[in-house]
Specification:
Blueprint lengths: L9 H13 L5 E5 L6 H13 L13 H7 L6 E4 L15 H10 L5 H7 L13 H10 L8 E6 L6 H12 L5 E7 L7 H4 L3 E4 L5 H12 L3 H11 L3 H8 L3 H19 L2 H12 L3 H21 L11 H10 L8 H16 L4 H16 L2
Parallel strand pairs: 1-4, 1-5, 2-3, 3-4
């Protein structure tokens, strides 16, 4: 992975290059920011540059033995940790390493739900299990094989089991020589504060619209007008932009469910409400959580729509068309309660509460809120 492969983020690239060339390399660093802005490829490119045998001024050489191995994500001193699910006797990340290398190589801009779909999960939530702590200790206790730095890259450390997180904290407090731990997080607030405080934080922001527009035009050959529209909807996330352009099936599925839920709740049709609750409960818990996150975003967008400031609205055409008649029902009398109820439902799903009960109860509450 090269820095030149990463869209935008010039300031972060310059900072990483400068610290590497000056020899200031903190042993634990936390790459954090919104989903889909390039945190994972930045961390990999940074690790590749540090271990490059002939580093250039602005990037790795791409020709040395280290770069060739990093290109295949198969360097003996590069170790990955990421959320998985236990199935078919697969219990640790190394059991999924082939799938991981394929996913990252094809496109490093992906979400947790896309990763879990890639490895074929059903009704399971991706986690970094307690067993992984033993693997992390084993890997970091190994002698460096050939690189300058032994690198442990943890994608989404907020998904760590408490036992694993505590073991990681000890390793960060007492690192072995020439060991680099890179954490890549979408939600750093969910990481142990003791781990956060011991990591050098690298904040990575959303992509500017002009960078997004030029990239979309060159990569997808879309018109300037369409590129501008997609860039606005994406709000700095290249992952969101790709989903918008490809008319992501998951996104359309969520939108249709949202429309059905709101219509059946408004009509107070208990039969339809029960059917919607059962339909949502039939998908995996990660998709249920993602759907509730989508609902929270939609409620926010429709509330903002009433303020008549189109530059603050991030809706595609179908969502916007539905909002013409629906938006007035989301107002200052119910917006806070809407947000609270959706967040509560998300928390209940996270805690493995019966999904049919959660969504049936949510639809009944929506029925009351829409009448305000």
């Amino acid at each position: 992975m090269f820095f030149t492969d990463i869209i935008g983020q010039s300031e972060v690239k310059e900072r990483l290059l400068r610290t590497a060339n000056e020899g200031f390399v903190p042993h634990a660093q936390l790459f954090c920011g919104p989903e889909g802005v390039g945190k994972l490829p930045l961390a990999i490119a940074y690790a590749q540059y540090l271990n490059c045998l002939d580093p250039q001024e602005n990037d790795s050489c791409g020709k040395c033995s280290s770069c060739v191995k990093y290109k295949n994500l198969a360097h003996p001193d590069l170790h990955f940790v990421f959320p998985i699910i236990k199935k078919d006797k697969k219990e640790v990340c190394d059991d999924y390493i082939s799938d991981w290398r394929t996913m990252v190589s094809e496109n490093p801009y992906f979400s947790l739900s896309q990763w879990l779909a890639h490895i074929g999960t059903d009704n399971a939530q991706g986690l970094i299990y307690a067993r992984e702590s033993e693997e992390i200790i084993r890997k970091l206790s190994l002698k460096i094989y050939e690189a300058k730095y032994k690198v442990l890259l943890i994608w989404l450390p907020e998904k760590m089991h408490e036992v694993c997180a505590n073991k990681l904290l000890k390793l960060i407090e007492e690192p072995t020589d020439n060991t680099l731990i890179l954490l890549v997080s979408n939600n750093p607030d969910y990481i142990l504060t003791t781990i956060q405080s011991r990591c050098q934080r690298v904040n990575i922001h959303g992509l500017p619209e002009d960078v997004m527009i030029s990239t979309l035009q060159s990569e997808y050959n879309v018109s300037p007008q369409d590129a501008a529209s997609v860039a606005h909807i994406a709000n700095g996330s290249y992952l969101k932009a790709m989903e918008t352009i490809s008319l992501d099936e998951e996104h359309k599925f969520f939108f249709n469910l949202f429309v059905q839920m709101m219509r059946s709740s408004y009509a107070r049709n208990i039969k339809d409400i029960k059917k919607i609750a059962n339909d949502i409960a039939s998908v995996g818990r990660e998709r249920q959580k993602n759907f509730l996150v989508y609902c929270q975003r939609m409620i926010r967008e429709y509330f903002v729509s009433n303020l008549k400031h189109p530059e603050m609205i991030y809706l595609n055409q179908d969502e916007g068309n539905f909002g013409v008649r629906f938006a007035p029902f989301i107002n200052e009398k119910n917006i806070i309660d809407f947000s609270d109820e959706l967040a509560l439902a998300e928390r209940h799903i996270e805690q493995n509460v019966n999904a049919k009960m959660v969504f049936f109860d949510l639809c009944l509450k929506v029925t009351m809120l829409l009448k305000r």
